[in-house]
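Example record

Each entry pairs one chain with its bound ligand, adenosine-5'-diphosphate.
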Amino acid sequence: MAFLELNVLDNESTAILGIDLGTTNSLVALWRDGRPEILKPENAHDGRIPSVVFFPPEGGVVVGREARALAADRPDRAVFSIKRLMGRGLDDVAEDVAAIPFPIEASEGGVPRIDVGGRKMSPQEISAHILHHAWRVASDALGEEAPKRAVITVPAYFDDTQRQATRDAARIAGLDVARIVNEPTAASLAYGLDKKKQGTVCVFDLGGGTFDVSILSIEDGVFQVLSTAGDTHLGGDDIDRLLVEYALADLASANAAPASLLADAAFRQGVRFAAERAKIALSQDPETEFAVVAPEHGIAWRKRIDRAELERLAAPLLDRTLASCRRALADAKLTPSDIEEVVLVGGSTRIPAVRALVADFFGRAPHTELDPDAVVALGAAVQGHVLAGGTRDMLLLDVTPLSLGIETMGGAVSKIIARNSPVPTQVTEGYTTYADNQTGMDFHIVQGERELAADCRSLGRFELKGIPPMPAGMARVAVRFALDADGILTVTAKEETTGTQASIEVQPMNGLTDDEVESMLAESFEHAQEDFDASRAANLDVELGTMLRAIDAHLEEATLDPESLADLEEARAEALAARGTKDLPRLQAARDALEQASLPLAALLMDSVAKAALSGKTLDEVTRGSET
Ligand code: ADP
Ligand code: MG
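Structure tokens for the complex follow.
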């Protein structure tokens, strides 16, 4: 007996999953409630599904976390990194095959078949187990059968055969492929970079076993891969391997373990897991314990290791990523400064040294607001949503309910992140010094819609020191506001010539109730006119200050006629008197009068500047000369 599906036109049934089918880990995501969301089993703390397939001797198949755990005891039954063999002939992958502890034979057409305990399978079939498992995870998370249509991501360099093999794996898993999407494109979609009218993006993906760098261009929401480079054997696993060697060497030299044990595959697998744990801990903590404990062999080896030591070990590997970046840029005929957005992908980009390296190479902070493990799957879900007929315009992304900005000279507010901006977001604005030889700048971060800082909520203050002395207005200070998905705002001020920087981290929504937000908004409407006036008055006051300083600096050197001088003195006196009154009409009048009265002085100065530049010719002569 069967029930008829009645709600066939229900949204859910047309939804499309996004699946990142990774070499090391896979993830599944779906567009829900206006945003892409990683689907994960209820008890899992993240959605990562190890791309490991375990074939128990008694039959059946185990995939994911459990398979990875079982692999520790029976490495001969666990298939890792099957993605490397997808769509490849045996000859192409000799190096990979050597690293796989199973007999592999070529069937007709050169397709490798892997023999696990007598079960012979193609890479497509093994990948299908991972895809099917991802679908099961999605169904578990949703509490109902997950959609059977999926967007699946592949590396940008995958050729047609590799893409076709991925489609075949999906078909075997009972999934319908809505589209195969490039991983870097998906990552860019997750960051909403398709909304840029035009731009150049670099996606830096350092995963478990592979490194890929892709340069993309965006034009009217369409991505094009300009170049790709990378290293199919460079990733977090290599760092783990260095740590394993370090541990094994220490164990051997201390005679703590017999040589036979050191060569044992299961033991080495255990050491590998311990190495990875230590590495991951060091992304968070400055130091950690690297421990190999195998009571059955009487081994309890522990060593404290710090971040600097790991960085020293990994440095040669990390340097290789930059060589690939240079190659990709050269192929795209671009330089690092042409890249407008850098996106980090892959678990290994959580390593602080990797982030620093990338930021330094491109001269800009990479996007790290989204989880680098999750961005590809999230982007696949965005693509799925669009293909399912959803629009991105009605995106209900989390938005920041109040504007965020900084107090400018005079007490007005310069809004940097506007109210209702979707988060995560980041905005950079340029500022400069107000006084000659000013070596420090104070930043006051405020939140709210009012025009004067005093009427907004103060979030914090910090100071940028060490600006080299130079004339007012010459220093270039970039102030970056980065609001992450957790609502944490990081404000960084950086003096461009020296690179000196300072920053602060605040939580804008901390302690604010919805009612308070409402009343802050209501207040801003209520005071709109007076705020506008107050802000204008504050800005006029600052402008007067700047004008007065310029006039004072040059009045001595210029010989003004007595009448102009008297006018200027009068306007100057009124400007001084008007400052600080907050009286808008008076400030406005004073500014206009001062501007008018300073025209003769300005003409004289222009003349002398032109004189200097044109070796003796007056401005008049120059103009006359050009007429003849
Ligand atoms: P892939 O795309 O190859 O499937 P992932 O993007 O999932 O790989 O990255 C897996 C790699 O990231 C592994 O080597 C893992 O050890 C590493 N990794 C995960 N989290 C961290 C972390 N916090 N610090 C350093 N490395 C990490
Ligand atoms: Mg990946």
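The two ends are 100 Å apart (CA to CA).
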